Amino acid sequence: MHKKILPALLVAVMAITSLAAPYAVYFYPCGIQAGTTRRIIIGGQGLHKVQGGWITGEGVTITRVMPVPGFPRARGKGQGEWMRKWIHEVLDGTRQKHDLPAEATIEDSDWHPHPWWYNMHKCDFVELSIMARDMFVPKDDLQASPSLANLVILDIKADADAKPGRRDIIVFDDSGVSAPYSFFVSKEMRQEEPLYMDRCPYMIRKNGEPKLPPVAPPVVLDGQIFPGDVDVFYLKLKKNQDLVCSVTARELLPFLGDAVPGFFNAMIHLYDPQGEQVAYADDFFYLPDPILRYKVPQDGIYRFEIHDNLYRGRSDFVYAVECKIHDSDQVPFTPQERALHCFTPPSHHQIPQKSDKTIVMPGVLDCPGRTVRHYFEVKNPYSSYRMEVFARRQGSPLDATLKLYGPVGNLPLNAVPLLATWDQYPEKLFDVRNLGSDDLPIIKTNMLYTGSVLQFERDPVGEYVFEQPGKYCLTVEDISKAGGDEYTYTLAIQPQEPTFEVYATKSSFLMRKGDYSADIDFRVLKLNGFEGVITIDDTEDFTVETSEKDERMIEGRLSMKKTDWEGVKCLQLTASAEMPDGTKKTVRVTPTDPAEQAFAYTHLVPQPGFFFCAPLKKEPEIVKDLNIRKKGSDHANGQACNKCHQDGRKQ
Asked: 474 has which bridge partners?
């Protein structure tokens, strides 16, 4: 019996894996300067068949795709030494073809074939760095992450007039598309940390530690943090300059599924020309990505360092540091601006509109230790109200506590009964999914948080039934008694009414030619006794057929009305339902992608919109063989196969 079950389970898992869309964990570097071309590396899983991709907005295109063949271990007698000797020659600048030794050409040779190993003289610096890291960095199977096993190199071109700012980058293959990833276009030059080929043991023994040339702000610094890494850059600064260095790291990849803490927590340091530390930052208010500000006292070359707070590291610890000179009396960044830098708030983060039924009161805890009082009237007995603070959901650093007192009457507040205290956002969404089949179910149950670096669950939400009418008071304070001009919030008080929220657990879809449709699963939160039927609305761009699978799930099939387009469409979806009073309510559907954190939590990470992707008629060049170059190609690639090994023996 067990012998039959195990192969069936293996087949089911293999079938799921083979049909999975490409899973891109990181893109490095995470941006490009307008008017330049750049090679970036994608790391993830299921990337070996990537055919192309898109970068949203105008003026930035992917021109070439190069899947990196996986590297086996060099087990053949003398194979490792032969490869190291050749790559050392290439690193020294000698690009000459090497014939395979006799022991590699015999029919039953134990030498492992690989097209890059046999064609090192054709590899460029990025390819050599990938190969050198695989050769020289000891492998630890216990620390290996299957989710980072595949690499792809993309060649990207940005027009000179490409608009600076955040974009989304997506890649695809025949099975689907990856989730969107933040990608930035900048006017400023970008300096990348030294490639591994300059930092491998051989080159360090020969030339010492590589040192980047000093750069004057404005500049963007790109890098990856590996275990124990401290990346070093040099800034050329002048007296009286107001230097601001802001890190983007956690915002690129909000959650790490197999690390504690479950994100890259960067720390930055600045050292003066004499080598003394003069500035340091490890966060920005509650946001993990630090911002450093320093008034330069003297001209000179200053050393800038960045590392993880626990000196952890891996290829997905990607960062970008924007260094600029601030020349305004205004603060360079507010936490509200930085919090929403890479994050699109879901629908329930929107502040309700003020109306006859809804009270909306803005406020600020403008100094530490302050408590703000808000008074309101309850007119009818046994009225049920929802009271909530919008602070973290709007990017504010306020970690609020909400307290309800009443009825107040003519008494001072310290003589009024405390009715309730709230300090957390209560609602969570459960998700149950079958990763297998009906015959062989593989059930996974998750508690899904609509999480982000905003930590929205810090916003208190309270529900209360007022038994008697009268005047009541709500107080807002910070749980740690912090305060300042940045500690803004909005208090909303509204009657408890049936309502609903709708999420999609996937944001990107491949529209196949001849079909232009996509299956979408929606998760539903029915709140305050709502029991109505929810439908996904049609628009001028598409129609949606839906069926309610259960009270928490709706299955939908979206079909585009036009089928002659290509590229990416970023669209919004809405959901509607009839309310108990006969009115129609419409809410925005929040597109999300799931992300696991620290082995324990599964979050729904909100995305800017739904991305519907149709392959381009003119796809990027896909480089598949080191020995077959397309006209104008400067780069090499191949795939490990028996044919390549046989060709290598013949040569």
From this structure: 374, 404
